[in-house]
Amino acid sequence: MARPRTVSDEEILAAVTRVVGRTGPGRLTLAAVAEEAGIAPATLVQRFGSKRALLLGLHKGDAQAVRERLREAGEEHGPVLETLVTNLIALAAPVAEPVAFSNHLAVLHQDLSDPEFHAQARAHARAMREEIEDLLRQAVAAGELRRVDLAQLARSVQTTYNGALITWAVHREAPLESWLRRELDALLSPWRADGA
């Protein structure tokens, strides 16, 4: 009978995210991930096989993880637009330091140059935009947001989020959380319903 797993795949993939933040994908090693996850390197090889498979495994879970994260605080029944902004800021937590952001940009390079990784990156981006649009739809229904072209506003929110990450890393004039909140609030402000 097989022994139960004491460290889940999700915990291993979280360890991969932390190691990528420190080293980038090029210098990531299975040994470093195994140490971060608190498992034997052989266990990591048995479960994922290779560094490439491990990085693809990280990407495969990304689309579902972004959906879950963007929905998370909405279950607390707070203002929908605040949920949207807060959850987008939470998604950026792994890159809240310039070096980690730079290392994660190296992942983007891989995503854009390798077709298999690119397919995963597109799925992640699509999931993010769909969840943003759903939260915007909820904001309209809750009276927080005026009627607007939701698909276009969702694209603008996603573009502002990604652009704000880059401009924050260049300027470094405020903590990432403050920078993102300011940029997202500025985008959404003209569309807020009176008094929202």
UniProtKB/TrEMBL annotation:
Keyword vocabulary terms for this entry: DNA-binding, Transcription, Transcription regulation
Domain of life: Bacteria
Keyword DNA-binding: yes
Pfam families reported for this sequence: TetR_C_13, TetR_N
Residue ranges constituting the HTH tetR-type domain according to the UniProt record: 6-66
InterPro entries: Homeodomain-like_sf, HTH-type_TetR-like_transc_reg, HTH_TetR, Tet_transcr_reg_TetR-rel_C_sf, TetR_C
PROSITE patterns referenced in this protein's UniProt entry, alphabetically: HTH_TETR_2
Stretches assigned to coiled coil: none
DNA-binding region ranges: 29-48
TM stretches of this protein: none
PANTHER family according to UniProt: HTH-TYPE TRANSCRIPTIONAL REGULATOR BETI, HTH-TYPE TRANSCRIPTIONAL REGULATOR RUTR
Protein name: TetR/AcrR family transcriptional regulator
Gene source species: Sphaerisporangium flaviroseum
